[in-house]
Amino acid sequence: MEPTEKGSIGAEGQHARPGASPNRAMNTFSEADEEKLSGVRRMKLTATGLLLLVALVYVLAKWASHEGAGGWAGYVAAAAEAGMVGAMADWFAVTALFRHPLGLPIPHTAIIPTKKDQLGVSLGEFVGENFLSEDVVRQRLRSVGIGSRLGIWLADPEHADRVTAELSAALRGALTVLRDSDVQAVVGEAITRRAEAQEIAPGIGKMLERVVADGGHRRAVDLIVGRAHDWLVLHSDSVMDAVQGGAPGWTPKFVDKRVGERVYKELLRFCSEMRDMPSHPARGALDRFLADFASALQSDTDTRARVERLKGEVLGRGEVQDLIASAWTAVRSMIVSAAEDERSELRLRVRASLLSLGSRMAADPKLQAKVDGWVEGAAVYVVTTYRQEITSLITDTVAGWDAEHTTKKIEAHIGRDLQFIRINGTVVGSLVGLLIYTVTRALGA
Questions:
Q1: Pairwise CA distance, residues 145 & 150, whole Å
Q2: Tens digit of pLDDT for each residue in 1-42?
Q3: How many Cα atoms are found within 13 Å in the side-chain-facing hemisphere of 218?
Q4: What are the boundaries of the region Disordered (predicted)?
Q5: Residues 6 or more apart from 379 whose CB is under 8 A from it?
Q6: Euclidean distance between CA atoms 138 and 147, whole angstroms
Q7: d(CA 69, CA 7)
Q8: What's the whole-model pTM score?
Q9: Which conformational region is residue 377 in: left (phi greater than 0), alpha (psi within -120 to 50 degrees), or beta?
């Protein structure tokens, strides 16, 4: 019969590290694991059966030798004896990996359950030193050629469509998760803080100076003068009534009427001339005023201070803050709508950009090298900065495994091969024993 393999597991293997979750994958036994464990049991029976066979052969050979069967019995007995020794030695070695042989607390046995945490630490250090080093990461990524492969992949229209769809879904998800009130508060605060911190008068002055120098304001003047002329034509009675209403009460009515008509005609003539004459003196005066105002915005302290006060008053108004806050709602709605529409300009432009980028990356070695460098740099930063966290994940995970379940699971996966060691030990031991007995007899003869 096979020696008993049940034994107590060491104190180190009985309890997981504090804080480790007991519900780990290694703490459960699946149907596949049970099937593998059944295979291990069958191989154990085979190895044990071979041990019993050589033991029976040894007994029979010894009996035959005692009965005077001849010299051959000694050779068979020596081979069988060595086979038993080899089988028992390998049984002890294999069993010592998983439990205490015969239940005896022999030192350096039950290695897996008692040294589980130490094995986890060693495994984490091994991974950190041999897989998470900068040279290994760079060499591996460089051999992959990410830039070239990514370019070829993106150049495929089907793949570009897929990336565009995924980006659109991610964008919609992100905008849906964000609360409008939070984003509006952040946007409003950012715009207000930036506007308050930045003096706007010099910038406005420079912009106005360029506009005046290029004559860009003249179209605005044409529009305003033209609309003023049209308004006067349509509202002549209103203008004359306004002039008459402002006259002194002691003037005769017909005088007020004549004055109103005169004022209206002068206003209409002024607007007509200014509209039709590019060289009208009023236009020149307006050009000089705007030029002087642009210069004052940039250099005059009082003008700049008044502009800043006006800016503060405008930003402080509730209507302006509401307008800034509502801008996010409009932008979000526009982006979500564009992301959902497959034929929207946004998605079409993203798709075209991805195809163009893919074609360039597939054909341009310099761009490929840049992409490879970016990927390598990012990967190296991650492994060098978070190496301890990555290796501790391995260590903590192993520490959280239940020692008994871990031992059974490992035995289920590699135990069958280990039982072959017992079989090989029996066979090899027998051959070596036979060889030693033969050489001994030869030298003794």
A1: 9
A2: 444 444 333 433 444 444 444 444 555 667 777 888 888 888
A3: 16
A4: 1-26
A5: 137, 141
A6: 14
A7: 43
A8: 0.47
A9: alpha
Query: Tokens representing 85?
Result: 């020794």
Rounded to whole angstroms, how far apart are CA atoms 69 and 87?
Answer: 27
Distances (CA, A) of 248 to 238, 257, 258, 266: 18, 12, 14, 21
CA distances from 269 to 215, 240, 244, 256 (A): 24, 15, 19, 20
pLDDT digits (tens, 9 = 90+) for 42-68: 888 999 999 999 999 999 998 988 887
* Polymer length in residues for the chain: 445
User: Which amino acid appears at position 232 of this protein?
Assistant: L
Task: Please say whether the beta carbons of 311 and 195 come within 8 A.
Answer: yes
Nearest Cα to Cα of residue 347 among 163, 109, 126, 184: 163
Task: State both tokens at 358.
Answer: 């893919």
The residue among 304, 191, 280, 190 whose CA lies nearest residue 229 is 280
Q: Which of 85, 32, 144, 45 is nearest to 426 (CA)?
A: 85
Q: Compute how many other C-beta atoms are within 10 angstroms of the C-beta atom of residue 145.
A: 14
Contact 355, 92 (CB under 8 A): no
Q: Which of 9, 1, 3 is nearest to 100 (CA)?
A: 9
Based on its alpha-carbon atoms, the radius of gyration of the chain, rounded to whole angstroms, reads 47
Residues 43, 94: contact at Cβ < 8 Å? no
- pLDDT tens-digit map of 110-149: 777 887 778 778 878 888 777 787 888 888 888 888 888 9
- Yes or no: say if 108 and 96 are a contact pair by the CB < 8 Å rule: yes
- DSSP states of 386-427 as a string? SHHHHHHHHHHHHHHS-HHHHHHHHHHHHHHHHHHHHHHHHH
Q: Which residues contact 305 (CB under 8 A, 6 or more apart)?
A: none
Q: How many CB atoms lie within 10 A of CB 347?
A: 19
Alpha carbon separation from 409 to 13, 29, 62, 442 (Å, rounded): 14, 7, 42, 49
C-alpha 21/C-alpha 215 separation (Å) is: 75
Task: Tell me the angle at which helices 281-299 and 253-276 cross, rounded to the nearest 10 degrees.
Answer: 80
DSSP 8: P
Q: Which of these, 74, 98, 76, 78, lies nearest to 86 by C-alpha position?
A: 78
Instruction: Say what the pLDDT of residue 57 is.
Output: 92
Q: Which two tokens stand for residue 104?
A: 């005896």
Task: Name every residue whose Cβ is closer than 8 Å to that of residue 87 and which is 6 or more positions away in sequence.
Answer: 47, 50, 51, 54, 422, 425, 426, 429
